[in-house]
């Protein structure tokens, strides 16, 4: 494999010469599709009023749940210092960001507990319906990537 | 197929899903949203689920294309095994609607409700070695943080799955780590 490492390779900690990358290449739909999803949730053409910096911060908060420094390194800190607590998993003081933080923590760790009340809380905090959908996709994407990366890393170790 | 270990064979009825948030109404849809909703093959009537997610057309299109590839792409892991991975993740993530859909898909593809009946009766002892290996791996990959380990992979290999098939299973479980986190939080099923 001479192709450049992509975000999933890096999240899984695969090196350029990892034999697992040739196995990944058998499913170009998965490789290209995962990358297209990453761009669609983190840096979309139409951001629906959710900045890339805010998206980076909330994604990083979810990524912390992987408990894996290689994976987390794919999620850089946001530039805006107002999002630092959000991005580092700390309690957040701004009410709108606090609502987002607690929703993200719940979705990432205990999705079975989600209910209509959680969505109502986001709406009361000022998020529109399209923004809630976009945030839901973003949070859940990180949960997807976390599991693919974990699985690929694990599989590589058994080759 | 005969029943296993005397477990009553269940037949699941389809559930109905309703969103907690107002979906996009077709007459109000933007050109981008309309184009996005066409990605779904069932173009006749666009479901409330699709219309809810169409509020963010870009992520909808990207995720749906990836989802379809993971669940339907030819060769590799048999489709029924992908459905089992989806089912196990959905149960673990508390998405009753997704579990119902993929349990029924598995029964249809495999021509038997034995595996689904064993899972719903909490009788993992009645599963085949292959099913047990898929169950254990899928459950462990679904926890937060993921806890699947080398032993789970070794068990999958012993049950006959090769590296390419395990990559397919990883993706099937992971895409339900995504889909479950939409379907369950964004609506309820009856």
UniProtKB/TrEMBL annotation, chain A:
<protein>
    <submittedName>
        <fullName>Uncharacterized protein YciW</fullName>
    </submittedName>
</protein>
<dbReference type="InterPro" id="IPR029032">
    <property type="entry name" value="AhpD-like"/>
</dbReference>
Automatic annotation (TrEMBL), chain B:
<feature type="domain" description="Carboxymuconolactone decarboxylase-like">
    <location>
        <begin position="57"/>
        <end position="137"/>
    </location>
</feature>
<dbReference type="GO" id="GO:0051920">
    <property type="term" value="F:peroxiredoxin activity"/>
</dbReference>
<dbReference type="InterPro" id="IPR004675">
    <property type="entry name" value="AhpD_core"/>
</dbReference>
<dbReference type="Pfam" id="PF02627">
    <property type="entry name" value="CMD"/>
</dbReference>
<keyword id="KW-0575">Peroxidase</keyword>
<dbReference type="InterPro" id="IPR029032">
    <property type="entry name" value="AhpD-like"/>
</dbReference>
<dbReference type="InterPro" id="IPR003779">
    <property type="entry name" value="CMD-like"/>
</dbReference>
<dbReference type="InterPro" id="IPR010195">
    <property type="entry name" value="Uncharacterised_peroxidase-rel"/>
</dbReference>
<protein>
    <submittedName>
        <fullName>Putative peroxidase-related enzyme</fullName>
    </submittedName>
</protein>
<keyword id="KW-0560">Oxidoreductase</keyword>
């Amino acid at each position: 494999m001479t192709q450049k490492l992509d975000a999933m390779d890096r999240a899984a900690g695969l090196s350029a010469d990892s034999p697992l990358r040739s196995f990944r290449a058998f499913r170009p739909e998965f490789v290209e599709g995962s990358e297209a999803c990453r761009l669609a949730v983190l840096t979309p053409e139409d951001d629906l009023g959710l900045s890339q910096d805010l998206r980076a911060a909330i994604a990083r908060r979810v990524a912390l749940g992987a408990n894996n420094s290689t994976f987390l390194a794919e999620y850089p800190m946001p530039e805006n210092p107002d999002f630092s607590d959000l991005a580092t998993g700390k309690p957040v003081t701004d009410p709108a960001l606090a609502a987002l933080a607690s929703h993200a923590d719940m979705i990432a760790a205990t999705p079975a507990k989600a209910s209509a009340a959680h969505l109502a809380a986001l709406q009361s905090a000022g998020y529109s319906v399209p923004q809630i959908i976009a945030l839901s996709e973003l949070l859940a994407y990180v949960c997807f990537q976390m599991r693919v990366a974990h699985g690929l890393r694990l599989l590589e170790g058994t080759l | 197929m005969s029943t296993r270990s005397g477990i009553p064979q269940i037949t699941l009825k389809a559930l109905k899903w309703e969103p907690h948030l107002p979906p996009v109404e077709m007459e109000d849809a933007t050109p981008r949203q309309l184009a996005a909703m066409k990605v779904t093959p069932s173009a006749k009537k666009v479901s409330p689920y699709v219309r809810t997610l169409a509020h963010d057309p870009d992520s909808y299109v990207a995720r749906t294309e990836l989802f379809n590839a993971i669940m339907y792409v030819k060769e590799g892991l048999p489709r029924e095994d992908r459905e089992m991975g989806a089912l196990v993740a959905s149960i673990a993530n508390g998405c009753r609607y997704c579990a119902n859909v993929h349990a029924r898909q598995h029964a249809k593809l495999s021509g038997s409700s034995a595996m689904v009946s064993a899972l719903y009766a909490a009788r993992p002892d009645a599963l085949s070695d292959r099913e047990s290996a898929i169950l254990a791996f899928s459950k462990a990959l679904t926890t937060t943080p993921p806890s699947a380990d080398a032993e789970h992979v070794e068990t999958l290999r012993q049950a006959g799955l090769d590296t390419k098939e395990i990559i397919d299973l990883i993706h099937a479980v992971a895409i339900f780590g995504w889909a479950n986190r939409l379907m369950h939080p964004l609506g309820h099923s009856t």
